[in-house]
Amino acid sequence: MFGNDTFVPLVLINLLGLAGIVVWHIQGGNRPTGRLIVQILFFTNMSLVLYLGGIAPHRPDGIYTQGLAALLSKSAKILWWTHLAWTIIGFIQIYVRLNRKPREAHLIQDMAIAVIYLGVALSVIGFVFGMPVGTLVATSGVIAVIFGLALQNTLGDVFSGIALTLGRAYAIGDWVQLNDGTEGRVIETTWRSTNLLTVTNNVVVLPNSILAKQGVTNLSRPDETHLIALRVRIAATQRPRIVEEVMRSVLRASVRIVKNPPPVVALTAVDAIAIEVELQFRVDSVAIRTPAKNEIVDLLHDQCRASGLSLAMPAESLAFLPAPIRKQYPAESRPV
To answer: What does the record note on quaternary structure (predicted)?
Structure first.
């Protein structure tokens, strides 16, 4: 025990707090586990010194009210509350890493960190400086309403981003498609917007409030494979069974499509002019659908040519002319 004299414990707490800050910065952000261990050690030692010295960080100091001792008392408590916040934040970051949360979880993490810092700031104001926190909170509420009205659109983007993150509609790296036809891979999510990288290598920045109002189709769920349907019209000069076999040989010869589940050849329609066929196949990801479709078209051309099949004209390009109208003559004036 340090006895009634708390001057030495205050000095020791300040030294431990400052040393903890220096070591915390030396550890760097690339070593979160080591940073957390060091933070726990310093926070535990500071708490032990507070307990042995009979110092309560949650009550204003009634012994030292002025001079160097008062300054040491307030700085010691501020450092203790700061290290408490850093320790809690360290546990949150480790929890996120151990559970392998997606990178977009930084929105929820940032929100939790903001709440922790706000709580610590209010605790320092109330417990260290003895100021009325209730009055401060009421005043802050009025200011928050004013800022809320002024930043209505921005706050809408922020809360929409939180809702999208909690709903897990998509993750970093997923291919998504919006109702308006916009399509791309999610490369970044922030408090205000979501960035998509399109197939044309352009970055589309979508405010979260607009994104939340649109229907989003996640092309990467439940897996990355993507179904492609290619329609072909073959001239009706061969039996449908032969056409089907040729189409299957086209799909078997492809090296860019997924063979499990196996591709499908569907004969969708037949008339006097053409047999309509739909080739249904999957690719590993949306990014390679164009090369895969190009390969199928090239193989289709070669196989049809080798098998004696001909491509038919599109149905909408066919024009049927009405039969010529024969001129009618009266019975008495018909030519002999």
So the answer is: Homoheptamer.
The rounded distance, in Å, linking the Cα atoms of 253 and 319 is 36
Tens digits of residue pLDDT in 236-278:
888 999 999 999 999 999 999 999 889 999 999 998 889 999 9
Compute the half-sphere exposure of residue 329: CA atoms within 13 Å on the CB side of its CA. Answer: 6
Has this prediction a pTM greater than 0.90?
Answer: no
CB 187 within 8 A of CB 196: yes
Q: What are residue 322's phi and psi, to 5 degrees?
A: -65, 150
What architecture (CATH level 2) is domain 166-218?
Roll (2.30)
Structure tokens at 4: 């009634």
| φ/ψ (deg, to 5) at 122 | -65, -35
Name the token pair of 185. 């891979």
The set of residues, in sequence order, having a beta carbon less than 8 Å from that of 287 and lying 6+ positions away, is 175, 185, 199
Could you give the CA distance from residue 290 to residue 198 in angstroms, rounded to a whole number? 14
3-state secondary structure of 275: strand
Q: What is the pLDDT of residues 67-113, one digit of tens each?
A: 677 788 888 888 888 888 888 888 877 777 776 555 545 666 777 88
CATH number listed for the domain at residues 226-313: 3.30.70.100
Task: Report the SS3 class of residue 217.
Answer: strand
3-state helix, strand, coil in the chain (%, to 5): 55, 15, 30
Report the DSSP beta bridge partners of residue 196: 186, 204
Angle between the N-to-C axes of helices 67-98 and 32-52, in degrees from 0 to 180, rounded to the nearest 10? 140
Neighbouring residues of 269: CB distance < 8 A, sequence distance ≥ 6: 275, 276
Which tokens is 53 given?
């010295």
Q: Where are the domains of the chain?
A: 7-150, 166-218, 226-313
Distance separating alpha carbons of residues 293 and 183, to the nearest angstrom: 18
